[in-house]
Design brief:
- 73% of the residues lie in helices and 6% in strands.
- It contains 15 helices and seven strands.
- The strands form two sheets. It has a five-stranded mixed sheet with strand order 2-3-1-4-7, sandwiched between helices. It has a two-stranded antiparallel ribbon with strand order 5-6.
- Strand 5 and strand 6 form a beta hairpin.
- Helix 12 packs across helix 13.
- The protein starts with 8 loop residues before the first helix and ends in a 7-residue tail after the last strand.
Amino acid sequence: MSSQQTPPASKRLQLRSLYSLSGIINLSLVTLIIAVMLLAYTTYSKLSSFEQSLNSMMDKSLPSVIQSGKLYSQMNLLLSGTEQLSMANSEAMRRIATNAIDRQLEGLDKLSQENQQTYHNTSQLSSLERELDELNTLVEQRIAINNKIERLTAKLFALQRQINTDLTASPPTTASTSWSLLFSQIMLLSAELTSLDQLSEIRQRQGNLDSLFTSLSERADALPADLQQSAQLAIAALSETVLHPNSGLIALRQLQLKILGRVQGRSNFVRNLIADYARLNEFESHQLNQAVLGQAEKTSRLVEQQIKQASLLFIIVLFAYVGFALFIQRVVVNRLKTLNKQVQQRSTGEGHLITVSGRDEITELAKSFERFATTIELQKNTLEEMSLLDALTGIANRRAFDDYYSQALNVASRQRWPLTVLLIDVDYFKQYNDNYGHSQGDVCLKQVAALIKQQMPRKTDTLARYGGEEFAVLLPDTDLEGATTVARNILDAFKNAQFPHDFSGVADHVTVSIGISVGQQQDGKITLPSVEAADKALYKAKRTGRNRWVNDADDDEQ
C-alpha cells in the first residue's frame, strides 16, 4: 500500500479531463480545421472567376468534344459490323451482324440529334444507311445461293451413290465400266465447280462438261438393257443438276461469283463512306479541341495568379500541421511504441507488467492490455487441457493416452495390482472409407468410439483414439479374465449394433480386432503390460482372420 493520500474522485476526474489526450487532439483538430476552412474560403473567393470560366468550358466545349469522341467510337463499331456482315456465310451470322449494325445506326442517329450536326452530316448518314441496306440484301442473296449450291452438291453425291449401287447389282461389262468411269469423271469435274473462283474457268469447264455429257449419252446405248433406263435417268438428273441454264450448278456458281464481286464492291464503298464520315467528325472534333485548348490556356493563367495568392495561407496552415504532427509524435506515437514493446515482451514471456506513464487514454489502453494478457494466459491453460481430446470422437487422444499410461504403470507398480492394455482396430476400414466416403468414415469412427465407451462402465477405465481407426483402452486393476470379458463384450456389442459394412472381408457389418496385453503378478514379481505387446497381439488377431481378440501372453484367441 502506498503511503500517499488518494485524491477524491471528483479531483481525479478533473485531473483526467485536464490530461485527456482525446480532448487535446480534438482541440488541435478543430483549430486546424478552422484554419483550413479559412484557406478554403479565401481560395474560393479568389477562384470565383476561374469557376465561371471552367463552367463555360464544361457546359459548352467539353460536351461537344465528348459527343464527337462517342460518334467516332460508334463509327468504328459500325465499321466492324460491316466487316462481319460482308463475311457472313449463314443466315444466323447475317442476322447477328445486321442487329449489331442497326444498334450502331440508332446510336449514331441519337448522337447526331444530340450534337445538332449539319445537314451534310445528316445526309451522309442517310446515304450510309441505304448502302448498308443494299449490302444486307446482297449478302442475303449470296447466302441463299450458297445454300442452293450446297443442296445441289449433296444431290450430286446422292446420285453418285445411286449409280454405284445400280452398277454393283449388275454383272460388270466393258461398256458398263467405261460408262461408269466417264460418269465419275463428270461427277468429279462438277464437284470441282465449287472451288473455281474465275468466271472464265467456269465457262471453260461448262464446255468440257457439254462434250462429256454427249459422250456419256452415246455410251449409255451400249450398256446392258437392265442398266440403260437407270443410266438415262441418271444422265438426265445430272444434266439437270449441273447444266440447267437457271438452276444448275454452273449457273448458280456464275451468279454466286457475280454477287460476291458486288458484295465486295458494296462493302468497300460502305467502308469508304464510314471513313469519310469519321474524318469529317474528326475534323470538327479537332476544331472543338483547339477552342477548348485556347480557353484552357486562359484559365491556366488565371489559376497561376490564384495560386500565388493562396500560397501564403497554405504555408500558415502547413506550419500548424507540422506542429500538430510533432505533438502527435511526442505524446502519442512514442508512447504507443513503448506500449507495443512492452506488449511484445509480455507475449514472449520476457516482460512482466504492462505500464505506460501518463493520465490519458494510452494509460487506460495499457491497463486493458494487461487485463487482456492475463485473460490470454488463462485461455492458454484451458487450450492445453482441450488439446488432450480427439477433435473427431471427443475421447482422449494419443497424447493423453501416453500420459494416462505412464501414470497407470506407476500406480500398478506401487499397488502391485494387474493392469491391462487393449489395442482395438476397425477391420477393413480403408475399404469402408473408399466406398462410403471419408465423411461417412468419420461418422463410423464416432459410432465405434461411443460403442466401446459403453463397454467400460468404470470411471477409472480410459479409452483413447490411438491413431486413424485404432483405439487404445487402459483397464486398471484388471486381470486376464476381466480383460477377456471386456474384449468379448466389445465384440458382442459390434455384432449386436450391426453397423453396415458391405465391403468387409469378415462380415456384412463393422467389426474390430483386439490385441490384449495384461500385467500381473507372477512368482512374486509384477509384469507390466506394454503397447508393443498389445500391438503384436492385434497384428496376430488381424492375421488370423480379424473380428477376434488375441492375448499376447499365451496366444489365446476368440
